[in-house]
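Sorry to interrupt, but I need a hand with the structure work. Could you write out one complete protein record for me, on any chain you like? Just paste the record in under my message, thanks.

. . .
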Amino acid sequence: MIEGIEMFPLRRHEDERGWFIELMRASSLPDQVRQSNLVWSRRGVIRGLHYHERGQNDLFACLQGLARVVVLERSTGETFTVDIGDDNPVAVWIPGRHAHGFEALTDLLFCYHVTEEYDPDDPDEQGICWADPRVKHLWSTQSPILSERDAAACS
């Protein structure tokens, strides 16, 4: 596994009312979380690959559906991938120096906690094309739905 990536099992507690999952415990994380984001994505969307030069780290969790997480260690080319969500309830800690992203394998609800607050005037977010030859084979789709910014990383 790529250095610094950690996986945290998410335990579901169910009863007649529904279920409960403890999503994150700050004392078990390598760094303090400062912002949480919630994303809904349609099947076929790829978000990323992004990396952060100033040290933002991410904790990914798929709350509903199934997501494929892909991580690229930029200096060595080493890769890591895991499908998370309904079939594999884990959260994945990703040091931000590694390029990372996720693919919606189904329509999904995705949460990610980050260690730095987003500053739109000075964003710490760089991009690598989802189709970089080191990771292209890891995605389930070869014609993803992309944001303009993620598509521009491929130009």
